[in-house]
Fold this protein.
Amino acid sequence: MTRYLVTSALPYANGPIHFGHVAGAYLPADVYARWLRMKGEEVLHVCGTDEHGVAITLQADQEGKSYRDYVDHWHEDITAFFKRFRISFDAWSGTARCGVHAETSQKFFSTLLEKGFVTERTASQWYSESLDRFLPDRYLQGGCPECSHPEARGDECPACGAWIDANQLTDPVCTIDGSKPVLRETLHWYLDLPALQEAGLASWYEGTDAQHPHRAWKPNVAGHVTAMLKDLKERPITRDLPWGVPLPEGLEGSEGKVLYVWFDAPIGYLSATMEWAEAQGDPDAWKAWWQDPESRLVHFIGKDNIAFHAVVFPSMLLGQGDSWEGKEFILPWAVPANEFYNLQGRKFSTSKGWRLDSDAFFETYSTDAARFHLLMTLPETADSEFTWEGFQATNNSLLADKLGNFASRVLKFAAKSFEGKAPSSEGGLDSHPSLAEADAALGEIGVRIENFEFRAAAQALMKGCDALNTFFDVQAPWKLTKGDASDLNLCGEVVERCLAYLELLSRRMGPFCPDSADCLRTMLGEAAAGSGKDWGPESDGQPPSRIATGAILGEAGVLFRKIENDAIQEEISRLESAVS
């Protein structure tokens, strides 16, 4: 058994999250964690809301709310959204609500400072005279110094992907009110990334550090990080703000300054684990996840977070050395970053109304259908999108027609022809070509999930359903009921095999469509012994075990209801009218 520490990027508590966020960092992580648990691995899925930063202070001030009330509201909203989407976490917290987060973040800072990986200096920073405050990088926009793209952010260019210094922007403007900022001197602390690169970051990333192994990087991660490491620079880790983690007491010149949100946010993974350990009654339990070399740390993120999870946070962990009770931290084992997920030809935009109303969506449509469609269209190697027409096709043509219809046909036939009981079978059909094809397809699912190829895993499930439908059609058991004893025996063999594969399907679809998997097991009745929360005793790619003769079946039902064309057209019209 291997221990997997799975994290999903902390959603920012400054507004609702949408399907694009889910496709990027949360659904893939949820599927991966569910699959690992079913395989019998030890898993801890950690997340929480990111609750600091100037964006929160500005919006809370505009709404006349306290910072705490503001982040509490969005924490509750985001929590409810994840519950609707059936995204589950073992440890779920927030950087302002976790009781040990501030202390943990301050210790990270102090250790890096003591080891010489944090430097102090006075530097120029963009200041908004109209707002009377220094501006964070994300609230600046101007020309990219690398490619001249006119709408680069203060930390990164969306056109060329360069990680830039905000002071190098040409013709910068404040994105809050459009005013022209000015440069002012201020004292801040900087993370010495070049020094950390030499201290071990480079060897870890390149795979030459045997003490901190990792999987092969996805191409989009490798390309981004390789470019960064060619010209790595110090990055500021403090800000002038009234809300955030204050710098450690006694540090001269630190009054009114807090840790930069990108510095304290990833530490939220660790502090949430510490909080979880405390709740388990074992305050030291976090160490097994974060300091045991056998643990595997897997970060699920969107591509805009690659820099922080594949360069900055590993540097911060590396820079702690053995300062935490004589043990080092593990470093990321995998960073399966996804690209951007859009909506109906445009970027998701809550402010512009180009979004899906989650309350209305989940009142009308199947959560499992949404999960499966997102998996079928994940932006794993390139940007992709949700379209209403595509969602309808996934629900109707794949889930309803292939998976749901197969289950319904088999169970209804068994109820009619075998009095709702599993017939006997001696295994004479195990070598049938269609069943062999189903074995291969269903055996591929776990391999694909293991390699973070979730689209291919979902496609493999459908390939398995195709093969099983072909098997049922070719064998035509309804014709065999009219034949002799040999035909009747063959009919029983066909139905038993179909029931056995339905039981297997209920497990293989579990990580993707958990509610429908449970529903299918209820329909199978005694033919689905156990909870179905394990991957199954069968090896991937092998025929499933026999169903006990006489097992009483449940009642056939509808796994996925079809969506009418009129409903889809209404949704498209509603979306377009929201921004017209």
Observations:
- Residues 388-417 form the longest helix (30 residues).
- The chain has a mean pLDDT of 94.
